[in-house]
Structure formats: structure tokens, C-alpha cells
Amino acid sequence: MRAVFVKTLADLRRRRLQAAVIFITVLLAVGTGMMALTLLTQSRDPYQAAFAAQKGAHLQVYYDGATSREALASTPALIGASSFGGPYPSTTIEFQHGSRKFSLDTFGRDNPGGDVEVLRITNGHWPTSNDEITLTRSFAELNNISIGDRLKVVSVAQRPVLTVVAEVVDIDEGSADLSTQHAWMLSSAVPSLTAPTPRSAFYKMDYRFAMDPSTSQLAGYIDRLRAGLPPGSIVVSLNYLLIRNIFNITNQILTSVLVAFSVFALGATAAIVANLVTGIVVSSYREIGIMKAIGFAPREVVAVFVLQIVTPALAACLVGIPAGAIASQPLLANSSHALGLTYEPSFSVGVGLLALGCALVLVGLAATLPALRAGLLKPVVVLTSAMAPRGASGSWLRGLANLVRLPQPIVLGVGDAFARPLRSALTLIAILLGVATVTVAIGLPRSFQKINDSETSSGNMQVIVTRSEGFPDSEVTRILAAQPETSRVVALTGTSVDVPGIGDAVNARVFRGDSSHLGYLLVAGRWFSTPGEVLAPKALLRDAHLKVGDAIAATANGRPLQLRVVGEVFDVSNLGHELFMDWSTYVQVSPESSPVVYYVTLNPGANIAAYMRRVAAVEPDFLDVQPNNTGLIAPVKIIDSVLLIVAVVLALIAVGGVFNTLLLNTRERVRDTATLKAVGMSPRQVLVMVASSAGLLALIGGLVATPLGVMLNRVLLDAVSYSAGNDTPAAAYSTFSALELLVVLVLGVAVAIVAALIPGRWAARTNVVDVLHAE
Amino acid sequence: MSELVRLSDVTKVYQGGVTGALSGVSLAIEQGEFTAIMGPSGSGKSTLLNLIAGLDRPSSGSVVVGGTDLGRLGEAGLARFRRDRVGFVFQFFHLLPNLTALENVLIPAQLKSRASAEAGGRRLLSQLGIDDVADRYPAKLSGGQQQRVAIARALINQPDLLLADEPTGALDTKSGEHVMTLLAQLHEQGQTIVLVTHDAKLATRYAARVISIIDGSVVDDARLETAERRPADVIRVRGEETAR
After folding, report:
1. Who contacts A499 (Cβ-Cβ below 8 Å, separation ≥6)?
2. Whole-angstrom Cα distance, residue A585 to residue A563?
């Protein structure tokens, strides 16, 4: 065995560059894989851990303020809850902080503990007087509100000022960039902050059950509550499954993307390893013969070839596994932070060993299969040949290139690209995976951007005006209409609709005005045009067993409401549990309602800032005027960044694959190159020949990979849409123009040609005399 | 006849001066000559040929071929020189294994110009008696056939100078004689040929001039068609030198 090690070490010294290629590709692949594994294992349902620690509510139910305390007290027994919190008196308050106005569901609660929904204070102390308020840390961070800041309440006539005294983490609501937020005050403070308008006072009850209930069980509980309480008592309900999904969706998408591309990276690495070992074997026939002649057993010959691959791979693992674990920590920290968990850097030795084992087995197998050929070769045969004979592969390509009268160096180069078909195929795999990943990394963020633009009505409205409850809708409409820059106003409110088959009341967006221009993406059907017509995302249609064209016997505001689904809309709010309807539909059940939010489209070229200043100045206490924020939400930005990283990793691995192949080709053909130089090929022509070889491989790989990448982009987008409760709208797919795909292709070829420069220069500098006389 | 090759005080030192391959060699070769360079293994004869072919550069001295001082040419210039002015025949043929015989022959022409040289290539193969193997790959050819393909390749650009380094060294006697007959015929048609060989009989039978090199120095330069030198003298000279 000592001889095997001695020979392996000697070969490693001789093939330093190839060892470096293996080291880098394995390092990148293992690093990405370790990142994926760490996220997969360490972030496995982080919500569940926080949910248990903070005694999260399985079910939160909002009751009308007129519901009696006795009736509320009977509800836990009605549904068999093992523990409960509340009833908490609540109302929605609007407050001003700096120039901005916010709206929060505020609950009267005298301490943060209890049997359900424990609020974890991360900063400050619980309120001790009626002018103190507690916010979620997520809301405070998003809006730059700090402990000690003073908030002016504008939803009641007294305009009281509240001081922020605490930031908490609440496991029973989503993060501020995805969900509406809660605030807490002493119970005694709530009545004076409740506006004297109908339906402004609520009670909230939190329920917890001995076992985690299923969707159907939760629906059953709501049905029982409805049956046991006076009609209209339940305003809205929210269950832990929806919140858990909202929390986990980013991690799920990230983990899926990383796992998928880690498999790609490992596949490309295996192809490169197999290619390299095949190349070494075919160019070492004589050496293999000598090894056998002096007594190396076949398995020892195989061991020499495998060990010289596994050794740099092992070194790469020793660096890549800790590096991957470290790289995954910011993502874990982000996940912990969102859930209010204390982040502690984590590294699982087991996962590390698993990654090490998988990587070494994969690399070992990829090396062993071609190395077996070396073990099986007959000494007498191989001693007489310097290398494995090459066939006529590639001659048809040369013929084709000759037909179109390409310069001879290019003709020779394109022929060389496929002179060893297996090598070419393995190289193409690496290129294919690299280009496909780059295509996805370009396409997916654009698809996200398109979806984001549709969700935020980017380009279709520029200003969002929110009125206080005490300020009449007619006045807002008059003010906006009076502005010469106003082109169109779509007013909006939200309500809850009970849909048969759906446990929780469904949030509905009610539009007044021509909402079809807001730019929401349609998956199927059309926008509503007559009263009773609604649109919904896939998740609601699926869960309620509905399709476009179906009728819904819904209930809203305690009254029956006949609806018909005329379209499927893309909307990620509440993971696809939304309804879109026109004001004419809503007034059937709530004639006294009026909208609170106004989407304003300005005339082209209007000065948005000046417009906002002017409108806000009309009623500074009652109107909140903000520009339409079309920025991407944080989770999407993280996914985009991770995509970019994996694209760079895969692209580097693909470049490594091309480089590796060219290295093998130029070394194997050093005698041919010397001969060509002897008969008059100039160094520049040699360079062109090698580059042509690389360019053709990249071109063919790119031609296959680009449509594959577009397809993969589609599959991933569908998976992401599905996670968010939607089907992908056709418009989100079309993120590539033919010209861009061509540019990707050309860039791929250009990168491959650049990668060819190093082996190309070596070939160009071949010393003819040295090489030909070494025969 | 005009002078085609001139070497002036050429020295070639390998490995940082440890090994001297050529030492102060000066000689001239006329256009149309068939010159054989003879010497034992390691004497420097192949180095001399490589310097004339522009495959290698002298450590000192100058090599001028057809009025071109090779020392003034860069790598690209040398490549053009080899392609346009010189044809080189190697002992081990050095055909590209993944190209057919005809494709091998055409390579220098295609490197020179995009104009089709196929007709010329086929004509050459025909003249050399191997037109029937034009589409075969080198692995399917005998040694003699491979060397004739190599000669055709060397001639495709109608070089001023044909250089042959032990062209029969890897061939059996019959094939070797066939190759030498071909070279003689080319010479009769006016081709300048420089042949490196260690076979004195071969050299004196076909070449008109025999230059003997020992330890990097020219020890004899015999023009066989002149009265003062006879083939037997050359053989004797070489025999004496070898016996030293």
C-alpha cells in the first residue's frame, strides 16, 4: 500500500493544476451543499419551536364588541380548548409618528404572560399607565420607531399621545413587511381610544388545544363557535397554520433553491471528476503498463487514480463544510430574528459528517468508474501505446466547418471538441448546469419583480392616501379630484367574507373605481365588471373546491352575499386566501361602508412629491399621504441574493469544467500541437484552435442549457407560486427576450473562450523540438 | 546555383550551458542541392536541421534561409516561415491521428490560405503512389504509407527547402528505399533537400553532398559529384570518426 501512496503523492505533485481544479469545484459544490443541509436541518420548522416556547394560539377569534362577556367565557369549553387567553378588548387605532400615519389593531392586556400567546419582551417594559403602548419589534424596526418615541393618536377626537415603552415578539402574527401588526396597552386604556363609530370595538380570544389541530378540525371549531353564539358575533378568525406557513415560506423557498442547485453543483462536480480521471487514464497508458509490469495489482492501479482525486476533494471538504455552515448562519439568524428566537450560531457535527461522507462517496464513485478502466488494461497492450487511441469522432464537425470555409485553426478546434465523445459529454453536463443556473438566476428575480410590480401596482398608481375614520370619504374624494395631476382614483377597503368550505373568514379587497387598471396579474378568466363578480387566487379556489365560473353562497357582514368567480388572480396576501370584488358588490351587504385607502394615479410627468405635500397639507391630521412603495420585500431580496450566489457557484464550476477539459485536451495533444507548429501553425492560430474547441462546447452546451434554464425557471416559479398559494400567471413567465437569451449564450461562449486562454497559451508556447524529440 | 541556406558560426547550448549540441558551425547550402547530414546519435545533426527549419533558435551565430535571417523573426514569423518556405519530414511521421491522410496533407495549405488545396493534395498523393489511402486515418496505414503522407504534407506548399530527419529510421528496408527513391525523384525535379541520417550508405547513394558532424562540429563536407571525393571516402571518414 505504501507504493500506492508514494505514487499518488508523486502524481499529485505532477498534476497540481488538475488537483486545484478538483479542489475548487468540490469546495464550491460542498460549500453550497452544506449551506443547504444546514438550513434544511437547523431551520426545520423554526416556527414550531417558537410556537411551543411562547405558547402560541392555535386559533385567534375576533368577536364583535357587542358580544357579551359571558358568551365569550363559554367559548373555550364550546370547542374543547385546553387553555385560552382573553377576552382582550381591542380596537384599531391610527397614530402619527413624524410625517407618517399608521394603523394598528390594539389590544388591552395587563401583562405579557399567560397560558396562551406569551409576548416576549425584547426591549423596554410592559405598560404601567394608560398613555403607554407596546409594539412588535418587527413593526418598530420596519418603521424606525424606538422605545421612548411618542405617537399621536389621530383616530379619536382627544388626540392622546402615547409613549412606546416596549418591543415584543408575538408568535401569533406575521412579520411587519408581510402582515398587519398588533399593539398592546393596559385594558383600561382601550375604551378611551375606541372611536365612537359602529364596529370599531372588538374582543379577541386566543385558544390553544392539547394537540395541534388540523385544518378541518379548526374549521369545525369555527362552525361550533358560530352555532353557539348569536349571528354576527365572529368578525374574523386566524389560525396558526396560516401564520406558520407565512413564517416558513421564505425558508422553504430558500432551502428548495439551495437543495436543487446543490444537487446541480454536485452533479457538475461528478462530471468534472469523471472527465478528469478518464482524461488521466487515456493519457497514461504507458505509465499504467509500467505500473502493472513492476507489480501493481489492478486494484492498486485503480487506487492510485482514485486517491489523487479524493485527496484534493477531502481537502476541499475540510474547508468547504465549515465555510458552508458559516455562510448559512446569516440566513438562520434572519429566520431566528423574525421569530423572536435568540440566535445562536449552530453547527451540527452530524450534518457536517453527512456532507463529508456524501461528497467523498460521490467523488470517489465518479473517480472509480473511469479508473476501473486503468485497472483492467492489459500491460502488453498499454506498454506499446502512449495513450488510448482516438477515433474519428469530430470528423463530421470538421467536414461541416470546412464546408463553410472556416479558417483551418477553427476547423481543427471544432473537430477536437468532440474527438473524445465521453469527455465532451461530461463537459457539456457541467456547462449545461452552469448556463441553466445562470438563466434561472436571471429569470427568477425578474419574475419576482413582475409579480411584485403587480402586487404593488407599480407604474399604475403613484400615491396612496389613507384617511382617518373621523374624516369623511366624500371630502377625500373632493380633495383628490381638485388636484389637476389626479388622473384616476381607486378607493379601497377590506372586509371579511365567509366562504363555504373555508374555516377562517376570507379577507376581501373591495375596490371603488376602475380597479382593472391597477395591474393585478390574472391567471385565468377576467376582471370583474358587474355586481357579484369576484376574483380569487388559487389557494382559495382550491380549498373551497371552486373554479372560474362557479357561484359562491357567501356571507359578509352577517348577510348572505351571492358571488360568482369570474377570474383567478395572483395574490400572495394570506397565502392566496383573498377575494377581490367591486364596491357595487360590497354595498349589497354593507351600504353604510366607505373606503379608507385611495390609490391615486397621476398624470404622466406629474411631480409626485409636490402632489403629496399639497394633499397632505389640506388635512394633515386626517390624511396620510405616502408614495407607492414598490420595493421588494426582504424575503424576496434574500432569495434573489441566494440565487445570485448559486449562479456564480455553478458558473464557476462550469468554467472549471471547460478549463479542465481543455487542459486535458491540450496536454493529451501536445504532440499534435507541436506537429502543427512544425508545419507552420502560428501561436495565434494555436490559440484560436483551442479557443474554438472551448467555444463550440460552450455554444452547444448553451444551446441546450438556455431552453432548459427557461424551463427550470418555469418549474421553480411554479413551485414558489404554489408555496404562496397561487398559480403562476402567464405574464410572470415571460421574463426573457430572444435577444437576452442570445446574449446569455454569447456570454457563455465568451467565458469559455476566456477560460481557454490559459491552456491555449500553453499550447501556443509548446516547444516543438522538446515535444517531438521526446518520442 | 544560388545560396539557399547559410549558417554562420552557429552554436547551440542546451540546459544552461551544460550540454553543447553545436559548436561554431558554418556552412552554406545551394539551391537544388541534395545534402545529407550524417553523424552518430547525439552528434547535433538533428539540432542543425531544427535550426534550419526555424523550429529552434541558435545560442549564437546566425541562420539565413532564402535571404531571411531567422534570428530576426518572432514566433509568428517563424511559423509563417515554416509554413511557406520549408517542408519537414520526421522520423516518426507525426501525422495527426484524428485526420485522414488527405486532411493531414492539406493542413499546411489550409493554414496558409482558405483557398481549396484539395486537388493539389490529391495530385501529390497520386504522385507518391498513395492516392488510394487518401481517406484513411493514419492508424490504418503502414509505416511507409504514413511517411509518404508526411512527405506529401511537407510538399503541399511547394517549399524552397525540404528537410528530412531520419525519414527511413522507423521504416523497414523496402519502405525506406521507396521513400529515398521518392526524395531522389523530387531532387531531380529541382527540390532542395537536406537529409539527416546516420546511414552512410543511404546518404552516399542518394545525396550529392554529405556533411559529417561529430560532437557538434562539422568534421567533413563532401561533394560526391566532384572529382576529389568519392563515396568510399565519405564512408571511410565516417567510419574513422565513429571509431574514435
Report:
1. A506, A540, A544, A552, A554, A579
2. 8
- A770: nearest CA in chain B? B56
Q: Which residue has the cell 390594539?
A: A106
For residue range B35-61, what is the model confidence (pLDDT) as tens digits? 999 988 888 888 999 899 988 889 999
B122 neighbors B26 (Cβ within 8 angstroms): no
List strand residue ranges (DSSP E) for A688-743, in order: none
At residue A383, the pLDDT reads 55
> Nearest CB to B97: which of A390, A408, A772?
A390
| Chain centroid offset of residue A214 CA | 27
Whether the Cβ atoms of residue A697 and residue A417 lie closer than 8 Å to each other = yes
Cα–Cα distance for residue pair B75/B166, rounded to 1 Å: 26
Give residue limits of the domains in chain B: 3-243
Among B residues 141-170, those touching chain A with beta carbons less than 8 Å apart: 153-154, 157
Q: Are strands B161-165 and B192-197 parallel, antiparallel or unpaired?
A: parallel
Closest residue on chain A to B47 (Cα): A769
Residue of B46, B80, B96, B135 for testing the chain A interface, max A β-carbons within 10 Å: B96
Contact partners, residue A741, CB within 8 Å, separation at least 6: A439, A706, A710
Sequence-distant (6+) residues with CB within 8 A of A396 are none
* DSSP letter for each residue of B71-138: GG--HHHHHHHHHHHEEEE-TT----TTS-HHHHHHHHHHHH-SS--HHHHHHHHHHTT-GGGTTS-G
Residue B114 Cα to chain centre, angstroms:
27
Taking contacts as CB-CB distances below 8 angstroms, the residues of chain A near B80 are: 680, 682
Query: DSSP label at A631?
Result: P
Rounded (5°) CA angle B62-B65-B68: 80
**8 Å CB contact between A257 and A17:** no
Q: Does domain B3-243 have CATH number 3.40.50.300?
A: yes
Neighbouring residues of A684: CB distance < 8 A, sequence distance ≥ 6 = A764, B76
Q: B15: nearest CA in chain A?
A: A770
- Phi and psi for A522 in degrees, rounded to 5? -95, 135
Which residues sit opposite A467 in a β-bridge?
A: A623
Report pLDDT digits (tens) over A59-118.
999 999 889 989 999 999 999 999 999 899 999 888 888 878 888 999 999 999 899 999
Q: Is A535 within 8 Å of A570 (Cβ atoms)? A: no
Model confidence at A392: pLDDT above 80: no
Using the predicted structure, report yes or no on whether residue A311 has a pLDDT greater than 90: yes
CA distances from A499 to A242, A536, A545 (A): 16, 11, 11
For every residue of B149-198, DSSP letters joined together read: HHHHHHHTT--SEEEEESTTTTS-HHHHHHHHHHHHHHHHTT-EEEEEES
- Residue ranges of B 8-67 with Cβ closer than 8 A to chain A: 46, 50, 53, 55-56
Whether residue B115 lies within 8 A of chain A, CB to CB, comes out as no
The amino acid at A726 = N
What cell numbers appear for A89 in the block?
378588548
Other CB atoms within 10 A of residue B239 CB:
10
Size of interface A-B (CB pairs under 8 A): 89
Q: Which pLDDT value is given to residue A43?
A: 63
| Partner-chain residue, chosen from A392, A683, A775, that has the shortest CB–CB distance to B137 | A392
- In order, the DSSP letters of A341-383 are PPP-----HHHHHHHHHHHHHHHHHHHHHHHHHHHHS-HHHHH
How near does any CA of chain A get to the CA of B14, in Å?
Answer: 11
Do the Cβ atoms of A451 and A633 come closer than 8 Å? no
Beta bridge partners of A560: A555
Q: Which residues make Cβ contacts (< 8 Å) with residue A314, sequence separation at least 6?
A: A360
Task: Classify residue A406 by its DSSP letter.
Answer: -
